[in-house]
Amino acid sequence: MSKTHGDVWQRCLEYIRMNINPNSFKTWFEPIKAISLNEKSLTIQVPNQFFFEWLEENYVTLLKKTIKRELGPGAKLEYQIVVENHKDTMNGIQQFTQKEEYSASDIKNPFVIPGIKSAKIEPQLNETYRIENFIEGDCNKLARSAGKAISKNPGKTAFNPLVIYGDVGLGKTHLANAIGNSALEEFPNLSVLYVTTERFTNQIVDSIKKNELSELTQFYQGIDLLIVDDIQFLSGRTKTQEIFFNIFNQLHQSGKQIVMTSDKPPKMLEGIQVRLISRFKWGLSADLQEPEFETRLAILASKLEEGIDFPKEVKEYICYNVSQNVRELEGVIVSLIAQSTLNNKVISLELAQSVIDNYVTSTEAQLTVDNIKKLVAEHFSLPIEKLQSKTRKREIVIARQLSMYLAKNHTKDSLKQIGANFGGRDHSTVIYSCKTVKDLMDTDLLFRDTVQELERKVQMQLNRGKIVV
Ligand code: ADP
Ligand code: MG
């Protein structure tokens, strides 16, 4: 019996699902449709160009392996890029190549308020926040690329809405503004508006008082790219949510772009109507994580004004110690420059230390995987390098697994980062190690004592506040 494209792709999906995390699977693989199978060539359909590029850039190895597994050597994967046609969903799809160029002249004037009919709206963007000075790293790659794609094609990508989420100080407001600025560069007549949820709420309250709510809604419905910052503050505000719901629907239906930021992923937002949350999930939710050490260094370099530089060890010291918040990183840079100018001191490691001690809150003190490796290596009298080596000697394997277990519980690093820190192992090895340690603790009392002893040492280091390596 001959295979159909549907069966083949289904089996590919099962294999892919086992090999990547559920979120990535949902974002990048669920939307794919299999179109046809011609001997060894399977054609799949993806929603847009960006999607295709993302798959090619990030999943090409996995895709190749999967398709070969199903169709044998010489297997080929072809892509067909189509975009959903929002306006005419009955008619299904439309070829990407036939898509007309985005034309700025199509954009209608958003103002319907009498008297200011022809005014151009003030986008309220912070112009210093640009895509170019938003440093790229693994921590923000998806959000940044999606943002870039949107600014080239507002309302016409699959990322509508785009929700950028992440902890405080990781660049949500920067990136959101950057998208607006880039879009305006590309399409100067586009009506773009940046608004914080706080301000949006106040506008609603005001307009209700003045009996101008319908004007306000109409104004919002005329915007082409609406950026709403910090939507977690919609929580508990029923009236604001209701009005936002209507604006959102209107904009989305007419193919206008919505970008939002939040301190949590949409599904974790509390006090917000389910119907609104489900709409937030229509497009793409992309997170901003803490930047990796190298990215922090690059951000630091980008924040130094021309003509100012710090010695290498000072830069590294700062980036090592300020890891969780880019705003704090900037704060340290500014204080350091101020301290050195005001007191006429050279920028030295010592000065950096004192600035950081004063600046960085004690919660910033945290262990790194390296601290943990050192601790474990000392405890077992092993050279640190052994922990990342390939050796399968039992006592080293155990020490390595224990280090991963401690790293998982006491650092903020992701499983992937932890694995990478142990000689390039992958996240599944870390999961396996943690499980082994837990199992051993249940069965071996001596081993449990060892783990507890190490936990005590970890705690001592943390209590000391600042960790010096
Ligand atoms: P959030 O809105 O997530 O709290 P912000 O957007 O206000 O964070 O970012 C805090 C500061 O950190 C800003 O000054 C911003 O320019 C800077 N920043 C954050 N991430 C980056 C990055 N990747 N590249 C350059 N600057 C960044
Ligand atoms: Mg912000």
Describe this structure in words.
51% of the residues lie in helices and 11% in strands. By secondary structure, the chain is of the alpha/beta class. Strands 6-7-8-5-9 form a five-stranded parallel sheet, sandwiched between helices. Strands 1-2-3-4 form a four-stranded mixed sheet. The chain is globular, with a radius of gyration of 26 Å. The termini are far apart. Mean pLDDT is 85; it is low at 84-118 and 465-469. Adenosine-5'-diphosphate is lined by residues 133-135, 140, 166, 168-174, 299, 302, 326-327, 330. Residues 172-173, 229 line the site of magnesium ion.
Can you summarize the main beta sheet?
5 strands, parallel
- What integer value in Å does the Rg equal? 26 Å
Helix segment count?
A: 20
Strand order of the largest sheet: 6-7-8-5-9
Order of helices and strands: HHEEHHEEHEHEHHEHEHEHHHHHHHHHH
Topology:
Blueprint: H1 5-19, H2 22-29, E1 33-38, E2 41-46, H3 49-58, H4 60-71, E3 76-84, E4 93-95, H5 141-152, E5 162-166, H6 172-186, E6 192-196, H7 197-209, H8 213-221, E7 225-229, H9 238-253, E8 257-262, H10 274-280, E9 284-288, H11 293-303, H12 312-321, H13 326-342, H14 349-359, H15 369-379, H16 385-388, H17 394-410, H18 415-420, H19 427-443, H20 445-463
Parallel strand pairs: 2-3, 5-8, 5-9, 6-7, 7-8
Antiparallel strand pairs: 1-2, 3-4
Helix pairs in contact: 1-4, 5-6, 7-8, 8-9, 11-12, 11-13, 12-14, 13-14, 15-17, 17-19, 19-20
This protein binds adenosine-5'-diphosphate (ADP) and magnesium ion.
Magnesium ion binds next to helix 6.
